[in-house]
Amino acid sequence: MLGSLRQLGFGVDDLRAILLTHAHVDHFGSAIWFAKTHGTPVYCHAAEVGHAKREYLEQAVARRHRPRISGSHDGLKWTVAITRKGAMVRDGIPTTQALTEDVAAGLPGKPMAIPTPGHTGGHCSFVVDGVLVSGDALVTGHPVADAQRPAATAGAVQPRPGRVRAQPGRAGRCSTPRCLLPGHGPVWRGSIGEAANRATP
For residues 193 and 199, what is the distance between their CA atoms, to the nearest angstrom? Predict the structure, then answer.
């Protein structure tokens, strides 16, 4: 993260805030460090604040992971890699706050929140400077996914599979952005509606 900031010509002091789509460790591990070490403000949807603070934990169900991971070389490599990088860490961010409209208006890019619950109860996507940041509501690839294409993260990595079906449609209704930055997989350039339609069962 620090290297990426430097490549863009910024330093830690230039980082105004971190937005969380959801509080799974593979999406907010660095935020834990930034908040603890540098006091960087961290925001998420109000329904995800308790999860980010670790007042409770919504984690993928291990029994759903096992069949796909055990039968996939990429899945096994991914599991080992994220474990080494701290996937078993259960730390939270006690200073996490809800992203209100007033807070968003004062941040660069004036991020617009799009609630996309399902992967976690408070999962939220964001539109920032014409880019839809979808977290795990809509991904374009994942080592434990059935296919490397636009998809809603469901099944093996889905704590509440029944609720995820509505997510791609909510993200797809945001018609202005032409660029999707997913939590897993490559950047998608083009119609967000088309990506969401491909992901809808």
Answer: 10
- Helices and strands (H, E) in the chain, number of each type: 8, 8
Judge contact between 181 and 134, C-beta under 8 A: yes
Model pTM above 0.70: yes
Query: What CA–CA distance (Å, rounded) separates 28 from 90?
Result: 11
Quick one: fold of 10-199? Metallo-beta-lactamase; Chain A (3.60.15)
Angle between helices 73-84 and 62-70 (to 10 degrees): 130
Q: Are 24 and 93 in contact (CB under 8 A)?
A: no
- Rounded distance between C-alpha atoms, residue 186 and residue 196, angstroms: 15
- Residue-wise pLDDT for 45-102, tens only, equals 999 999 999 999 987 654 444 444 445 556 677 777 777 766 677 789 999 999 999 9
- The pLDDT tens digits for 144-195 are 655 555 555 543 344 443 333 445 455 555 556 788 899 888 898 887 777 7
Query: Residue 143 in contact with residue 83, Cβ under 8 Å?
Result: no
End-to-end CA distance of the chain: 35
Q: How many Cβ atoms from other residues are within 10 Å of residue 144's Cβ? A: 22
The domains of the chain are located at 10-199
